[in-house]
Amino acid sequence: MLILLKGGRIVDPVNGRDEVADLWIENARIVAEPRGKLPDEVHDVSGKIVMAGAIDIHSHIAGGNVNCARLLLPEKHPARTPAPAALPLSTAGWSTYQTGTIYASMGFTTVIEPAIVPHQALQAHLELSDIPIIDKGTLTVLGNDDFLLSLLRDGEGQAAVADYVAASVSASNGLGVKCINAGGATAFKYNERAFSLDDVVPYYGLTSRQIVEALQRAVIDLKIPHPLHLHANNLGIPGNVSTAIATIEAARGQALHLAHLQFYAYGDEGDRGFSSASAELAAAVNAAPNVTIDVGQIMFRQTVTVSADVLRQFNSTGMAKPRKSVIHDGDGNGGGIVPYLYRESDFVNAVQWACGLELFLLINDPWQVFFTTDHPNGAPFTTYPEIFALIMSRDARAEATARLPQDAVSMTTLPSIGREYDYNEIAIMTRASPAKLLGLKDRGHLGEGALADVAVYSPGKDLAKMFRFAHLVFKDGDLVVRDGRVTHYRWGKALKVNPGYDKAMDRRLAGYYDRHFGIPRSTFAVKEHILPHAEPFQEVACAR
Protein backbone atom coordinates (compact mmCIF):
# COMPACT_ATOMS: atom_id res chain seq x y z
CA MET A 1 0.00 0.00 0.00
CA LEU A 2 1.44 3.34 -1.09
CA ILE A 3 -0.12 6.29 0.75
CA LEU A 4 0.31 9.99 0.02
CA LEU A 5 -0.42 12.72 2.60
CA LYS A 6 -0.59 15.68 0.29
CA GLY A 7 0.28 19.27 1.07
CA GLY A 8 0.38 19.35 4.86
CA ARG A 9 2.64 21.41 7.11
CA ILE A 10 5.35 18.94 8.11
CA VAL A 11 6.69 19.66 11.62
CA ASP A 12 9.67 17.37 12.11
CA PRO A 13 12.41 18.90 14.30
CA VAL A 14 14.70 15.85 14.04
CA ASN A 15 15.10 16.47 10.33
CA GLY A 16 14.90 20.26 10.58
CA ARG A 17 11.62 20.49 8.71
CA ASP A 18 8.80 22.97 9.20
CA GLU A 19 7.41 23.32 5.71
CA VAL A 20 4.48 22.53 3.48
CA ALA A 21 5.25 19.28 1.67
CA ASP A 22 4.00 15.82 0.80
CA LEU A 23 4.63 12.76 2.97
CA TRP A 24 4.77 9.23 1.54
CA ILE A 25 4.08 5.97 3.40
CA GLU A 26 4.75 2.48 2.11
CA ASN A 27 4.75 -0.83 3.98
CA ALA A 28 4.56 0.73 7.44
CA ARG A 29 7.48 3.11 6.82
CA ILE A 30 8.04 6.68 5.74
CA VAL A 31 9.57 6.66 2.26
CA ALA A 32 10.91 9.17 -0.23
CA GLU A 33 8.65 10.14 -3.08
CA PRO A 34 8.68 7.09 -5.34
CA ARG A 35 9.46 7.85 -8.95
CA GLY A 36 6.99 6.53 -11.50
CA LYS A 37 4.52 5.09 -8.97
CA LEU A 38 1.02 6.29 -8.24
CA PRO A 39 -0.34 6.22 -4.68
CA ASP A 40 -3.01 3.69 -3.78
CA GLU A 41 -4.49 6.17 -1.32
CA VAL A 42 -4.33 9.98 -1.19
CA HIS A 43 -5.26 12.18 1.75
CA ASP A 44 -5.46 15.91 1.13
CA VAL A 45 -4.02 17.39 4.33
CA SER A 46 -3.52 20.93 3.09
CA GLY A 47 -3.92 23.36 5.98
CA LYS A 48 -3.22 20.57 8.49
CA ILE A 49 -0.29 20.02 10.88
CA VAL A 50 1.59 16.76 10.27
CA MET A 51 3.76 15.34 13.07
CA ALA A 52 5.17 11.97 14.05
CA GLY A 53 3.02 9.94 16.44
CA ALA A 54 3.38 11.20 20.01
CA ILE A 55 5.22 9.25 22.72
CA ASP A 56 4.28 9.33 26.41
CA ILE A 57 7.23 8.32 28.58
CA HIS A 58 5.43 8.14 31.94
CA SER A 59 1.81 7.02 32.26
CA HIS A 60 0.55 4.40 34.71
CA ILE A 61 -1.67 2.26 32.50
CA ALA A 62 -1.08 -1.26 33.87
CA GLY A 63 0.04 -3.18 36.93
CA GLY A 64 -1.23 -4.04 40.37
CA ASN A 65 -1.64 -0.51 41.67
CA VAL A 66 -3.58 0.58 38.59
CA ASN A 67 -5.89 -2.40 38.87
CA CYS A 68 -6.43 -1.70 42.53
CA ALA A 69 -7.33 1.90 41.68
CA ARG A 70 -9.92 0.68 39.17
CA LEU A 71 -11.46 -1.54 41.82
CA LEU A 72 -11.35 1.14 44.51
CA LEU A 73 -13.34 3.74 42.59
CA PRO A 74 -15.84 1.94 40.39
CA GLU A 75 -18.34 4.76 40.95
CA LYS A 76 -15.99 7.17 39.15
CA HIS A 77 -15.77 5.20 35.93
CA PRO A 78 -17.85 6.56 33.09
CA ALA A 79 -20.04 3.78 31.83
CA ARG A 80 -18.89 4.16 28.25
CA THR A 81 -19.57 0.53 27.51
CA PRO A 82 -21.71 -2.06 29.25
CA ALA A 83 -20.02 -4.31 31.78
CA PRO A 84 -18.77 -7.43 30.01
CA ALA A 85 -21.11 -10.40 30.45
CA ALA A 86 -18.23 -12.62 31.51
CA LEU A 87 -17.52 -10.27 34.44
CA PRO A 88 -20.96 -9.65 35.96
CA LEU A 89 -19.58 -7.83 39.02
CA SER A 90 -17.54 -5.38 36.99
CA THR A 91 -18.70 -1.79 36.73
CA ALA A 92 -15.58 -0.42 35.09
CA GLY A 93 -16.15 -1.44 31.48
CA TRP A 94 -13.17 -2.13 29.26
CA SER A 95 -10.62 0.21 30.81
CA THR A 96 -7.53 -1.19 29.12
CA TYR A 97 -9.23 -1.19 25.75
CA GLN A 98 -10.31 2.43 26.11
CA THR A 99 -6.78 3.43 27.10
CA GLY A 100 -5.55 2.59 23.61
CA THR A 101 -8.42 4.20 21.76
CA ILE A 102 -8.29 7.49 23.69
CA TYR A 103 -4.52 7.78 23.34
CA ALA A 104 -4.76 7.08 19.60
CA SER A 105 -7.51 9.64 19.09
CA MET A 106 -5.11 12.29 20.49
CA GLY A 107 -2.29 11.24 18.14
CA PHE A 108 -0.27 9.16 20.60
CA THR A 109 1.19 5.93 19.23
CA THR A 110 3.64 4.82 21.99
CA VAL A 111 3.10 4.88 25.76
CA ILE A 112 5.43 3.73 28.53
CA GLU A 113 4.16 2.32 31.83
CA PRO A 114 6.92 3.52 34.17
CA ALA A 115 6.63 1.39 37.30
CA ILE A 116 6.33 -2.38 37.16
CA VAL A 117 7.93 -4.44 39.91
CA PRO A 118 9.37 -7.71 38.58
CA HIS A 119 6.82 -9.85 40.41
CA GLN A 120 3.93 -8.07 38.66
CA ALA A 121 5.48 -7.93 35.19
CA LEU A 122 3.52 -10.88 33.79
CA GLN A 123 0.19 -9.43 34.88
CA ALA A 124 1.20 -6.02 33.54
CA HIS A 125 2.13 -7.41 30.12
CA LEU A 126 -1.16 -9.30 29.95
CA GLU A 127 -2.95 -6.00 30.56
CA LEU A 128 -0.81 -4.17 28.02
CA SER A 129 -1.72 -6.89 25.52
CA ASP A 130 -5.34 -5.79 25.92
CA ILE A 131 -4.57 -2.18 24.97
CA PRO A 132 -5.10 -1.77 21.23
CA ILE A 133 -3.34 0.32 18.60
CA ILE A 134 -0.45 1.84 20.55
CA ASP A 135 2.98 0.35 21.25
CA LYS A 136 3.80 0.00 24.92
CA GLY A 137 6.76 -0.55 27.21
CA THR A 138 7.48 -0.93 30.91
CA LEU A 139 10.20 0.22 33.27
CA THR A 140 11.31 -2.34 35.86
CA VAL A 141 11.22 -1.07 39.45
CA LEU A 142 14.32 -1.79 41.54
CA GLY A 143 15.88 -0.09 44.53
CA ASN A 144 14.03 -1.48 47.54
CA ASP A 145 14.38 -5.19 46.82
CA ASP A 146 16.17 -7.32 49.37
CA PHE A 147 18.39 -9.04 46.82
CA LEU A 148 19.81 -5.76 45.51
CA LEU A 149 20.22 -4.17 48.92
CA SER A 150 21.96 -7.31 50.17
CA LEU A 151 24.39 -7.20 47.24
CA LEU A 152 25.26 -3.61 48.08
CA ARG A 153 25.45 -4.20 51.83
CA ASP A 154 27.78 -7.14 51.33
CA GLY A 155 30.03 -5.19 48.98
CA GLU A 156 29.74 -7.59 46.08
CA GLY A 157 30.75 -4.99 43.55
CA GLN A 158 29.26 -3.17 40.62
CA ALA A 159 29.52 -6.11 38.21
CA ALA A 160 27.18 -8.20 40.39
CA VAL A 161 24.75 -5.28 40.62
CA ALA A 162 24.75 -4.90 36.84
CA ASP A 163 24.15 -8.63 36.37
CA TYR A 164 21.22 -8.49 38.77
CA VAL A 165 19.73 -5.42 37.08
CA ALA A 166 20.07 -7.04 33.66
CA ALA A 167 18.55 -10.33 34.86
CA SER A 168 15.59 -8.49 36.38
CA VAL A 169 14.94 -6.31 33.34
CA SER A 170 15.24 -9.28 30.99
CA ALA A 171 12.87 -11.50 33.00
CA SER A 172 10.38 -8.61 33.15
CA ASN A 173 10.78 -7.77 29.45
CA GLY A 174 11.28 -4.17 30.51
CA LEU A 175 12.54 -1.21 28.50
CA GLY A 176 14.52 0.37 31.32
CA VAL A 177 14.94 0.77 35.07
CA LYS A 178 12.89 2.84 37.48
CA CYS A 179 13.86 3.54 41.08
CA ILE A 180 11.20 4.82 43.49
CA ASN A 181 12.25 6.48 46.74
CA ALA A 182 15.39 4.36 46.89
CA GLY A 183 15.51 2.58 50.23
CA GLY A 184 12.46 4.49 51.47
CA ALA A 185 10.00 1.65 51.05
CA THR A 186 12.37 -0.64 52.93
CA ALA A 187 12.80 1.92 55.70
CA PHE A 188 8.99 2.08 55.90
CA LYS A 189 9.00 -1.59 56.92
CA TYR A 190 11.13 -0.54 59.90
CA ASN A 191 8.56 2.11 60.88
CA GLU A 192 10.37 5.07 59.32
CA ARG A 193 7.89 7.67 58.08
CA ALA A 194 10.35 10.06 56.41
CA PHE A 195 13.38 9.22 54.30
CA SER A 196 15.78 11.50 52.48
CA LEU A 197 18.77 11.20 50.17
CA ASP A 198 21.38 10.58 52.87
CA ASP A 199 19.24 8.73 55.39
CA VAL A 200 20.33 5.16 56.11
CA VAL A 201 18.17 2.13 55.36
CA PRO A 202 17.82 0.12 58.58
CA TYR A 203 19.42 -3.35 58.57
CA TYR A 204 21.23 -2.74 55.27
CA GLY A 205 23.28 0.29 56.33
CA LEU A 206 22.93 1.97 52.93
CA THR A 207 21.87 5.49 52.03
CA SER A 208 19.40 6.31 49.32
CA ARG A 209 22.21 8.10 47.51
CA GLN A 210 24.32 4.90 47.41
CA ILE A 211 21.43 2.89 45.96
CA VAL A 212 20.70 5.47 43.27
CA GLU A 213 24.37 5.70 42.30
CA ALA A 214 24.65 1.92 41.98
CA LEU A 215 21.56 1.65 39.78
CA GLN A 216 22.59 4.65 37.70
CA ARG A 217 26.02 3.07 37.12
CA ALA A 218 24.48 -0.30 36.23
CA VAL A 219 22.16 1.23 33.62
CA ILE A 220 25.13 3.03 32.06
CA ASP A 221 27.34 -0.09 32.11
CA LEU A 222 24.60 -2.19 30.51
CA LYS A 223 24.13 0.45 27.80
CA ILE A 224 20.40 0.55 28.36
CA PRO A 225 19.40 3.59 26.29
CA HIS A 226 17.01 5.15 28.81
CA PRO A 227 18.91 6.56 31.80
CA LEU A 228 17.85 5.62 35.30
CA HIS A 229 14.28 6.88 35.74
CA LEU A 230 14.19 8.22 39.27
CA HIS A 231 11.29 9.00 41.59
CA ALA A 232 13.28 10.89 44.22
CA ASN A 233 12.82 11.11 47.99
CA ASN A 234 10.42 13.44 49.79
CA LEU A 235 7.75 13.67 47.12
CA GLY A 236 5.06 16.24 47.83
CA ILE A 237 6.61 17.76 50.97
CA PRO A 238 6.92 21.55 51.45
CA GLY A 239 10.54 22.58 51.02
CA ASN A 240 11.46 19.48 49.04
CA VAL A 241 13.12 21.54 46.30
CA SER A 242 16.35 21.11 48.26
CA THR A 243 16.04 17.33 47.86
CA ALA A 244 15.49 17.65 44.11
CA ILE A 245 18.50 19.93 43.66
CA ALA A 246 20.68 17.65 45.81
CA THR A 247 19.58 14.71 43.64
CA ILE A 248 20.52 16.57 40.45
CA GLU A 249 23.94 17.29 41.96
CA ALA A 250 24.27 13.65 43.02
CA ALA A 251 24.04 12.59 39.36
CA ARG A 252 27.65 13.82 39.03
CA GLY A 253 27.17 14.78 35.41
CA GLN A 254 25.89 11.32 34.42
CA ALA A 255 22.59 10.83 32.60
CA LEU A 256 19.58 10.77 34.91
CA HIS A 257 15.85 11.20 34.35
CA LEU A 258 13.80 12.73 37.17
CA ALA A 259 10.15 11.75 37.17
CA HIS A 260 7.20 14.11 37.76
CA LEU A 261 9.39 16.99 38.96
CA GLN A 262 6.40 19.19 39.71
CA PHE A 263 5.91 17.21 42.92
CA TYR A 264 9.42 18.33 44.01
CA ALA A 265 9.12 22.02 43.12
CA TYR A 266 7.86 23.15 46.51
CA GLY A 267 9.26 25.81 48.78
CA ASP A 268 8.12 26.53 52.32
CA GLU A 269 7.79 30.29 52.23
CA GLY A 270 4.80 32.44 53.14
CA ASP A 271 2.24 32.41 55.94
CA ARG A 272 1.09 28.93 54.95
CA GLY A 273 4.58 27.47 54.59
CA PHE A 274 3.98 26.42 51.01
CA SER A 275 5.23 28.16 47.89
CA SER A 276 6.49 27.51 44.40
CA ALA A 277 10.22 26.89 44.02
CA SER A 278 9.94 26.06 40.33
CA ALA A 279 12.13 28.96 39.26
CA GLU A 280 14.99 27.72 41.44
CA LEU A 281 14.49 24.14 40.31
CA ALA A 282 14.26 25.05 36.62
CA ALA A 283 17.54 26.95 36.96
CA ALA A 284 19.15 23.81 38.37
CA VAL A 285 17.84 21.75 35.42
CA ASN A 286 19.00 24.39 32.95
CA ALA A 287 22.49 24.11 34.43
CA ALA A 288 22.53 20.28 34.21
CA PRO A 289 22.37 19.11 30.57
CA ASN A 290 22.82 15.51 31.78
CA VAL A 291 19.38 15.65 33.43
CA THR A 292 15.99 15.24 31.81
CA ILE A 293 12.69 15.59 33.58
CA ASP A 294 9.00 15.00 33.06
CA VAL A 295 6.60 17.42 34.68
CA GLY A 296 3.66 15.54 36.22
CA GLN A 297 1.29 18.47 35.75
CA ILE A 298 -1.75 18.52 38.01
CA MET A 299 -5.19 19.56 36.78
CA PHE A 300 -8.25 20.37 38.86
CA ARG A 301 -10.49 17.33 39.09
CA GLN A 302 -10.97 14.01 40.80
CA THR A 303 -8.24 11.46 40.37
CA VAL A 304 -6.70 8.57 42.22
CA THR A 305 -3.02 8.55 43.09
CA VAL A 306 -1.15 5.30 42.58
CA SER A 307 2.47 4.82 43.56
CA ALA A 308 5.00 2.27 44.69
CA ASP A 309 6.30 4.97 47.04
CA VAL A 310 4.49 3.24 49.85
CA LEU A 311 5.96 5.56 52.49
CA ARG A 312 4.57 8.65 50.76
CA GLN A 313 1.22 7.04 50.05
CA PHE A 314 0.82 5.91 53.64
CA ASN A 315 1.42 9.50 54.80
CA SER A 316 -1.26 10.69 52.31
CA THR A 317 -4.11 8.48 53.44
CA GLY A 318 -5.48 11.24 55.70
CA MET A 319 -6.09 13.40 52.62
CA ALA A 320 -7.98 10.72 50.70
CA LYS A 321 -11.15 11.88 48.99
CA PRO A 322 -13.35 9.83 48.92
CA ARG A 323 -12.20 8.56 52.32
CA LYS A 324 -10.84 5.20 51.32
CA SER A 325 -7.40 3.95 50.38
CA VAL A 326 -5.28 0.85 50.02
CA ILE A 327 -1.72 0.35 51.29
CA HIS A 328 0.04 -2.94 50.61
CA ASP A 329 3.53 -4.13 51.27
CA GLY A 330 5.85 -6.94 50.32
CA ASP A 331 9.36 -7.48 49.02
CA GLY A 332 10.47 -4.38 47.16
CA ASN A 333 8.30 -1.33 47.03
CA GLY A 334 4.73 -2.33 47.87
CA GLY A 335 2.28 0.36 46.91
CA GLY A 336 -0.46 2.75 47.84
CA ILE A 337 -3.69 3.83 46.18
CA VAL A 338 -5.18 7.06 47.51
CA PRO A 339 -8.03 8.96 45.80
CA TYR A 340 -7.58 12.70 45.66
CA LEU A 341 -9.60 15.69 44.50
CA TYR A 342 -7.53 18.60 43.14
CA ARG A 343 -9.58 21.76 43.66
CA GLU A 344 -9.21 25.10 41.94
CA SER A 345 -10.18 26.93 45.14
CA ASP A 346 -7.56 25.15 47.26
CA PHE A 347 -4.41 27.15 48.08
CA VAL A 348 -2.01 24.21 47.92
CA ASN A 349 -3.54 22.75 44.75
CA ALA A 350 -3.38 26.14 43.03
CA VAL A 351 0.33 26.47 43.84
CA GLN A 352 0.92 22.91 42.58
CA TRP A 353 -0.86 23.69 39.30
CA ALA A 354 1.31 26.76 38.80
CA CYS A 355 4.49 24.86 39.72
CA GLY A 356 4.04 22.44 36.83
CA LEU A 357 3.37 25.14 34.27
CA GLU A 358 6.36 27.11 35.52
CA LEU A 359 8.62 24.10 34.93
CA PHE A 360 7.30 23.71 31.39
CA LEU A 361 7.93 27.37 30.70
CA LEU A 362 11.15 28.06 32.64
CA ILE A 363 13.20 25.06 31.51
CA ASN A 364 14.82 26.50 28.43
CA ASP A 365 15.52 23.39 26.35
CA PRO A 366 12.44 21.42 25.20
CA TRP A 367 14.74 18.40 24.75
CA GLN A 368 15.10 18.27 28.56
CA VAL A 369 11.45 18.49 29.58
CA PHE A 370 8.74 15.90 28.87
CA PHE A 371 5.00 16.20 28.77
CA THR A 372 3.28 14.15 31.50
CA THR A 373 0.67 14.33 34.22
CA ASP A 374 2.12 11.21 35.87
CA HIS A 375 -1.25 9.73 34.89
CA PRO A 376 -3.34 9.37 36.96
CA ASN A 377 -1.47 11.02 39.85
CA GLY A 378 -1.50 14.64 38.66
CA ALA A 379 -4.46 14.18 36.35
CA PRO A 380 -5.78 11.64 33.84
CA PHE A 381 -3.95 11.59 30.51
CA THR A 382 -7.21 12.70 28.93
CA THR A 383 -6.37 16.23 30.16
CA TYR A 384 -3.35 16.51 27.84
CA PRO A 385 -5.15 18.69 25.27
CA GLU A 386 -6.01 21.24 27.95
CA ILE A 387 -2.36 21.38 29.05
CA PHE A 388 -1.15 21.84 25.48
CA ALA A 389 -3.43 24.86 25.30
CA LEU A 390 -2.04 26.28 28.55
CA ILE A 391 1.61 26.08 27.55
CA MET A 392 0.91 27.36 24.02
CA SER A 393 -1.19 30.36 25.05
CA ARG A 394 -0.39 33.05 27.61
CA ASP A 395 -3.99 34.24 27.36
CA ALA A 396 -5.30 30.78 28.26
CA ARG A 397 -3.03 30.72 31.32
CA ALA A 398 -4.11 34.20 32.38
CA GLU A 399 -7.76 33.23 32.11
CA ALA A 400 -7.20 30.10 34.20
CA THR A 401 -4.99 31.90 36.73
CA ALA A 402 -7.65 34.55 37.33
CA ARG A 403 -9.92 31.86 38.79
CA LEU A 404 -7.37 30.80 41.43
CA PRO A 405 -6.93 32.12 44.98
CA GLN A 406 -4.75 35.15 44.41
CA ASP A 407 -2.75 34.60 47.61
CA ALA A 408 -1.69 31.28 46.04
CA VAL A 409 -0.82 32.92 42.72
CA SER A 410 1.36 35.43 44.58
CA MET A 411 3.55 32.54 45.74
CA THR A 412 4.48 31.72 42.13
CA THR A 413 6.13 33.43 39.16
CA LEU A 414 3.56 32.19 36.64
CA PRO A 415 1.86 35.54 35.81
CA SER A 416 5.21 37.02 34.81
CA ILE A 417 6.04 34.32 32.23
CA GLY A 418 5.20 35.19 28.64
CA ARG A 419 6.60 32.17 26.85
CA GLU A 420 4.32 30.28 24.47
CA TYR A 421 5.33 26.91 23.02
CA ASP A 422 5.16 26.64 19.24
CA TYR A 423 4.42 23.56 17.16
CA ASN A 424 8.10 22.77 16.73
CA GLU A 425 8.69 22.76 20.50
CA ILE A 426 5.58 20.61 21.03
CA ALA A 427 6.94 18.14 18.48
CA ILE A 428 10.31 18.04 20.27
CA MET A 429 8.79 17.54 23.71
CA THR A 430 6.25 14.88 22.70
CA ARG A 431 7.93 13.13 19.77
CA ALA A 432 11.60 13.71 19.04
CA SER A 433 12.95 13.92 22.57
CA PRO A 434 11.04 10.94 24.03
CA ALA A 435 12.25 8.78 21.15
CA LYS A 436 15.83 9.86 21.78
CA LEU A 437 15.52 9.32 25.53
CA LEU A 438 14.21 5.77 25.08
CA GLY A 439 16.58 4.82 22.27
CA LEU A 440 13.75 4.47 19.74
CA LYS A 441 15.45 5.42 16.51
CA ASP A 442 12.54 4.20 14.39
CA ARG A 443 10.02 6.77 15.63
CA GLY A 444 9.63 10.33 16.86
CA HIS A 445 10.41 11.75 13.42
CA LEU A 446 9.22 11.68 9.81
CA GLY A 447 12.47 10.90 8.04
CA GLU A 448 12.88 8.13 5.47
CA GLY A 449 12.82 4.71 7.08
CA ALA A 450 10.94 5.82 10.19
CA LEU A 451 7.89 3.91 11.33
CA ALA A 452 4.80 5.40 9.72
CA ASP A 453 3.40 6.58 13.06
CA VAL A 454 1.87 9.85 11.94
CA ALA A 455 -0.59 12.29 13.51
CA VAL A 456 -2.39 14.94 11.46
CA TYR A 457 -4.13 17.79 13.28
CA SER A 458 -6.56 20.50 12.21
CA PRO A 459 -5.16 23.78 13.60
CA GLY A 460 -7.52 26.34 15.03
CA LYS A 461 -8.05 28.78 17.87
CA ASP A 462 -9.28 25.98 20.12
CA LEU A 463 -5.92 24.30 20.77
CA ALA A 464 -7.41 21.78 23.20
CA LYS A 465 -9.89 20.60 20.58
CA MET A 466 -7.12 20.34 18.01
CA PHE A 467 -5.06 18.00 20.17
CA ARG A 468 -8.02 16.05 21.56
CA PHE A 469 -9.38 15.00 18.18
CA ALA A 470 -6.64 14.29 15.66
CA HIS A 471 -7.79 14.58 12.05
CA LEU A 472 -5.90 11.44 10.99
CA VAL A 473 -3.63 9.01 12.84
CA PHE A 474 -1.57 6.27 11.22
CA LYS A 475 0.04 3.47 13.23
CA ASP A 476 2.64 1.48 11.29
CA GLY A 477 1.03 2.90 8.15
CA ASP A 478 -2.49 1.76 9.07
CA LEU A 479 -5.10 4.51 9.25
CA VAL A 480 -6.52 4.03 12.76
CA VAL A 481 -8.20 7.37 13.54
CA ARG A 482 -10.23 9.78 11.45
CA ASP A 483 -11.58 13.02 12.95
CA GLY A 484 -10.90 11.86 16.50
CA ARG A 485 -12.69 8.52 16.16
CA VAL A 486 -11.00 5.14 15.95
CA THR A 487 -11.73 3.58 12.58
CA HIS A 488 -9.47 0.55 12.69
CA TYR A 489 -8.16 -1.63 15.51
CA ARG A 490 -4.81 -3.38 15.57
CA TRP A 491 -2.42 -4.66 18.20
CA GLY A 492 0.82 -2.87 18.97
CA LYS A 493 4.12 -4.24 20.24
CA ALA A 494 5.69 -4.16 23.69
CA LEU A 495 9.14 -2.58 23.47
CA LYS A 496 11.91 -4.17 25.51
CA VAL A 497 15.68 -4.29 25.92
CA ASN A 498 17.78 -7.40 26.31
CA PRO A 499 20.97 -6.43 28.14
CA GLY A 500 23.70 -9.05 28.33
CA TYR A 501 24.83 -10.47 31.68
CA ASP A 502 26.52 -13.41 33.35
CA LYS A 503 23.87 -16.17 33.44
CA ALA A 504 25.30 -17.39 36.73
CA MET A 505 23.09 -14.68 38.20
CA ASP A 506 20.01 -16.63 37.05
CA ARG A 507 21.18 -19.71 38.97
CA ARG A 508 21.87 -17.61 42.03
CA LEU A 509 18.43 -15.99 41.84
CA ALA A 510 16.78 -19.39 41.42
CA GLY A 511 18.32 -20.49 44.72
CA TYR A 512 17.23 -17.24 46.39
CA TYR A 513 13.60 -17.75 45.32
CA ASP A 514 13.65 -21.36 46.50
CA ARG A 515 14.92 -20.32 49.92
CA HIS A 516 12.81 -17.22 50.49
CA PHE A 517 9.59 -17.77 48.55
CA GLY A 518 9.40 -21.54 48.02
CA ILE A 519 8.40 -21.15 44.39
CA PRO A 520 10.45 -21.06 41.18
CA ARG A 521 11.58 -17.65 39.95
CA SER A 522 10.33 -18.68 36.52
CA THR A 523 6.79 -18.30 37.88
CA PHE A 524 7.15 -14.54 37.48
CA ALA A 525 8.92 -14.45 34.13
CA VAL A 526 7.10 -12.89 31.18
CA LYS A 527 7.11 -15.65 28.60
CA GLU A 528 6.10 -14.81 25.08
CA HIS A 529 3.87 -17.84 24.57
CA ILE A 530 1.66 -16.83 27.52
CA LEU A 531 0.69 -13.53 25.89
CA PRO A 532 -2.36 -13.55 23.62
CA HIS A 533 -0.95 -12.02 20.42
CA ALA A 534 1.72 -13.33 18.07
CA GLU A 535 5.17 -11.71 18.17
CA PRO A 536 4.26 -9.40 21.07
CA PHE A 537 7.70 -7.83 21.55
CA GLN A 538 10.03 -5.53 19.68
CA GLU A 539 13.60 -5.38 20.95
CA VAL A 540 15.38 -2.06 21.35
CA ALA A 541 19.17 -2.30 21.07
CA CYS A 542 21.31 -1.66 24.12
CA ALA A 543 23.80 0.89 22.85
CA ARG A 544 24.90 4.43 23.53
Total strands: 26
Helix count, DSSP H or I runs of 4 or more residues = 17
Instruction: Tell me the major beta sheet.
Output: 10 strands, parallel
Radius of gyration: 23 Å
User: What distance separates the N and C termini?
Assistant: 35 Å
Average pLDDT, rounded to a whole number, is 95
Query: What amount of the residues lies in strands?
Result: 15-25%
Helix fraction bin: 25-40%
Spans with pLDDT under 50 lasting ≥5 residues?
none
Query: Which structural class fits the helix and strand makeup?
Result: alpha/beta
Report the oligomer.
single chain
* Morphology: globular
Helix and strand topology:
Layout: E1 2-12, E2 17-26, E3 29-31, E4 41-44, E5 49-52, E6 54-56, H1 64-72, H2 95-105, E7 108-116, H3 121-128, E8 135-141, H4 146-153, H5 158-172, E9 176-180, H6 184-189, E10 200-201, E11 206-207, H7 208-221, E12 229-231, H8 241-250, E13 256-258, E14 266-267, E15 275-276, H9 278-286, E16 291-294, E17 302-307, H10 310-316, E18 326-328, E19 335-341, H11 347-362, E20 369-370, H12 384-392, H13 394-401, H14 406-409, H15 423-438, E21 454-457, H16 463-468, E22 472-475, E23 478-482, E24 485-486, E25 494-496, H17 504-516, E26 537-539
Please provide a written account of the structure:
This protein has 17 helices and 26 strands. The chain is 31% helix and 21% strand. The radius of gyration is 23 Å and the shape is globular.
Please outline what is shown here.
Helix content is 31%, strand content 21%. The protein is an alpha/beta fold. The strands form 5 sheets. Strands 6, 7, 8, 9, 12, 13, 16, 20, 25 and 26 form a 10-stranded parallel β-sheet that branches. Strands 1, 2, 3, 4, 5, 21, 22, 23 and 24 form a 9-stranded mixed β-sheet that branches.
